[in-house]
Every structure is written in structure tokens, then in C-alpha cells.
Amino acid sequence: MTHADSFLNENDVEPEISDTAQTAEQPGYRASLYATTWPVDMANLNRSNAVVGAGLPLGFSCEDVRVDTVKIPFPVFAYTRDLDEVFVLGGLPGVLSGYVADIDGLPSGSSPTEPHLTKYNPQTGETIKLDLTMGDGFAYIGGALVHENGYVYVISQAYIYKINPDSMTVAAGRALPKAPIPRNFLTIYNGLSTSSSGHLLTKYFSPNVDASTFFSIDPDSLEIVSTADYPGASPRLTVHQLDNGEEHLYHLNRFNTFRFQLAEGKLSLDEDWLSRFDPYETGQDENDEPTSPVIAQGRVHYTTNTLRDVDQAMRIFWQETDVTYTSDKPPLVGHELLPGSNRPGWSFFHLAIDDFSGTIVAADQGAKALVAVRIGEDGDLDYLWQKSITVSARPAIVADRGHVYATDYANGRNHLVVLDLFSGEELCRIVTPASRATVATIVVSAANEVYFGSNEPGKETGLFHRFYLPL
Question: Is the four-CA dihedral 164, 165, 170, 174 of positive or negative sign?
């Protein structure tokens, strides 16, 4: 199939936003997102991985929790719209299966599958799979979001799709620019977000090259509205609005943090908010490959090491959203994520932060540990608890219920574990049919349900799990 600017069929209709979508008062900034409890894979544009009013209810009995599992090829990211709609973005295990293998110690068994968006109805178990085969960029899962206009947008292999979620058809799409030759074939698009004006935001980077381009895209026409060039890296995008109404797109590379100001879809570099790294206080002003920015309580948080071949323990650091930073100021230094640990650590995923209490939950997949900390008034870290578990999926927080959802690969099976946010006490452990660890997101629903995908590299298909209490 050739690339075309529009794929809207004459029989397709504009999707309508359902009046039945149940919402909760969510922490964080949610402009231009469809009004459900978990409209994007990280819960809100602050990327805090925290929601309220969702997941298993307070006082639930672990023995009463049921698990439904459906087959979906290599599921990674998940999103919700209505209570009977979950969208799963998956495929391309050739890149991610190495992470799974390093966690569970089994062969990677990589057998690439085509990228896809699959709609799953948890009430009926029905799945509808839409193959995303129009792109010819580097094989990577870019990201998706459920827009307030009713469409689902997906970035995959240097191509953007506008998808009608009711009919699961491509309403429009277009190829996106690639990095200049000779890095053209390594153009990786990752991260898809939206501004308060509704414009789509994305970026590409090319490994080992200090160059990236950031794009603002019109959600109706898919035309590129604005571009900005600045060295970027693998972390995904974070959008945040200050109390004064200013809106910014946050990002970072191996050497410094930065942000763009957003105004009606236009991107402009904020010259007064740029800071260098020195997380290990070595004087080298470098951070191996930092995680995506997470914003909570007026701070932007990061950790070191998304790469698996590191030789340093993980560090965490932060900066204020309303403070001026310039490159001539002292660099950001890190704090130990796991106190006293010299074990090399890494995590494919970023932090989860309770926007209300400021409790930070971080997974160290290399050191096989989960830790909860808070930033004290003295600017140091207060350590709340630490668990030695083989965590692989990205943890999620339900703030008002005090729950943390994580996975633990143990005894040849992947488990969902529910922990107390403030004490780390294990409240529930549920075994799944998955025989591998997973790099995927955990999603909680307003229908008192929890979901996560098991990639299962080397297997015939991946698995997608639903945890719920029967009526």
C-alpha cells in the first residue's frame, strides 16, 4: 500500500465521545485527552503513572480476584476509552526482547511481529486487531494517545495514524520526516503527546547521534505545524502547564535537560531552563541514558540508566519547574536510588509518583528491586521501603486507595502484586499464565479492574491479562 494523506472511507463516520465515560478527579494535567481514568499509557501528561478512583477497591479480598487472559501479539502499551474499551499497542519484540531476557534470565527468543493496535472488550473478551504496516522507519513502538476529538493516534515506524476507534479503521495517515543520511535508517520516533491546543507532539532521535527534531502536528489534517531541532535521546515527551498558564514540552538527553515553550502549536526553546548533568559527581557532565521526565508537586524527576550495559548504580535527581536554570550553573547531581547498593542498575521505564503525597516509586530492573522514597524538606531523600522483587512491568499508583501495582517474575511465572504505597506491605499476589517477564505498562480502570500485557518473546503469541472482582 502506498502512503496517502487520507484513508477516510465514504462509509466511515466521525467517532463521538461517549456520555457514559466515567471519570475520576485525576492528578496532573490532562488537556486534549479523552476523559477516561487512564487515557494514555502513563496516566496523564505529567507521566506520573498515578490515578485516583480506579483499580481493585479498598478492602478487596485477594482470593476473590479473577484473571482473564487473551492472546495479543507482544503487547506493550495500553490505553482506555470507555469502560468496555482497552487499546493495546504491540509488536516488534526484536528491540525489547533483550530487556525481557535480562530480567528473567531466559533466551530472548526474538521473532519480530508486525506493529498493531488491538481493541479489547473486557466484558466479552473480543479483540479487533489493526495492523500498522504503512511505515518504513526503524522497527520501534512509538506511542499512542486517545484524543478528546474521539480519535486514537499512533506513531509507529516513522508514520502517524489517525484511527477511528469505533470501526478500527485508519481514517488518515502520513509518513513523517526521517533523520538525515547516513542515520536515515535509524530514525526512531518515540513519544506521542498533546498540548492544550490539541496539537499532537512527537519527536525522532537517532542512536549515538546528538540530533533530534521535535514536531507539532495538526490533529485534523496531520500537517506539521512547527518543528524544533535540539539534541535529544530515547526518553519520551512530557507536557506540563505552570500555574501562570505557560505550557512546556520537557525532554532531556545524555548531557542536559531542556524544555520548549508551547503556544498554539508552536515550539520555541526556553533559554532560561537548561541544566547540565553530573549524577555520579565525576565531573564528566554526562548521564548514560536517562529516563523520561516525570512532573509532580512542581518538580521534574529523572533517573539514570535505561541502557542494560551500564556499570553504575541508579541515581535519581530533580529540578523545579519555576526556577531559572542555565548551563553556567552547577550541574544536577544524583542521589542513590537504592542506598548502599553498588550493583549496576537500569530500568526501561520511568518513575511513578503520587501527585498528592509526593511518594516516588522506582523500579530497578537490573538490581531486581522496587523502592519508595520521598524528597525531604532538606533536599535529601527519605527512604520509605524497599522490596526485592523481579519487577518488569512499569509500576502504577492509585493514590486515594494507597495501592501500588507491580509485577514479580518468580518460580517461572509472572505475578501481579499489590503493595501498600506507604509501607510496602504486600496486599495481594496473583499468578498469571505468563512464563516470561514483561516490559509493558500496568493500567488500572474505573471499573475496578487492572490490566497488563505479557510480551512472551519466543512464544507463539503474547498475553494480555485482566484482573477483576466478579459481580
Answer: positive
